[in-house]
Amino acid sequence: MYGKIVTEPPRPSPELLKQFEGIWTSTISDAMGRHGVLDPDIQPLFAPVNVIGVALTVINYPNDNITTHRALQMARPGDILVIDEGRGNVTGSFGHNMSLNARARGVLGLVSSGHVRDARLLREEQFPVFSRGVCPRSAQKNHPGAINVPVSVGGIVVQAGDIVIGDDDGVAVVPLAFAEEVLAKARERQQMEHDQAEGIRTGDQALGILYGENWAATRTADTLKEIRTLTSKS
């Protein structure tokens, strides 16, 4: 896939993006059947953090970030860089000066399968970053990768134009093709979670709104009965 640049990928409308505001990544994952979130080793650099934007995808040659610099020249307001750093990344492939460049272009944040550097400045200036960690070693700038092609980051395939949501829990990615459907389910789910929280405050059991008041006792009793039966026969 190296050497390919797509200049006009599909994008969600600003109106659609706005409708995802206030919906947690955990709720997005529930709405997608426990799917759609990046592996937990891709963590926010600081908290609290909340960002919603459009995936500008990048594949970098390992330990080389020239393609990210090229992507920043193409970036549009509302983009979030989603970077596949390949296997064996041992450099800080994104740093403070790149964040300044990104902000000047209207980029809202970074999601990377690799590492960043200048962590203190990124935290101080609150540029949203989700990555595997921090490394002070700089990347080379020699080998082109690809831009706005499908990438694999945190166990998820991300397409250019997908909706990216990051918060204190991590990152969720909503495929653009299913965004309206996911939005409807997520809104319903978040309302249910709100109602459940209010019920717990007044004495209801957790998840009782979904499974009934005695669901936990019933399920564990059935399991324990099976265990006792097996034990008695052995």
Q: Which H/E pattern describes the elements?
A: HHEEHEHEEHEEEEEEEHHH
- Highest-level CATH class of the largest domain: Alpha Beta
Number of strands: 12
Helix and strand composition category: alpha/beta
Notes on the structure:
- By secondary structure, the chain is an alpha/beta fold.
- It has 2 domains: about 15-180, Glucose Oxidase, domain 1, CATH 3.50.30.40; about 185-234, no CATH class.
- About 35% of the residues lie in helices and about 20% in strands.
- The chain has helices at about 15-20, 25-30, 65-75, 95-105, 120-125, 180-200, 210, 215-234, and strands at about 45, 50-60, 80-85, 110, 115, 130, 135, 145, 150-155, 155-160, 165, 170-175.
- The strands form 3 sheets. Strands 1, 2, 3, 4, 6, 8, 11 and 12 form an 8-stranded mixed beta sheet that branches. The chain has a two-stranded parallel sheet with strand order 5-7.
- Strand 11 (about 165) and strand 12 form a beta hairpin.
- Helix 2 (about 25-30) packs across helix 6.
Question: Topology of this protein?
Answer:
Elements: H1 14-19, H2 25-31, E1 43-44, E2 50-59, H3 66-74, E3 79-84, H4 96-104, E4 109-112, E5 115-116, H5 119-124, E6 129-131, E7 133-134, E8 146-147, E9 151-153, E10 156-158, E11 163-167, E12 170-174, H6 179-201, H7 208-211, H8 215-233
Parallel strand pairs: 2-3, 3-4, 4-6, 5-7
Antiparallel strand pairs: 1-6, 2-8, 2-11, 9-10, 11-12
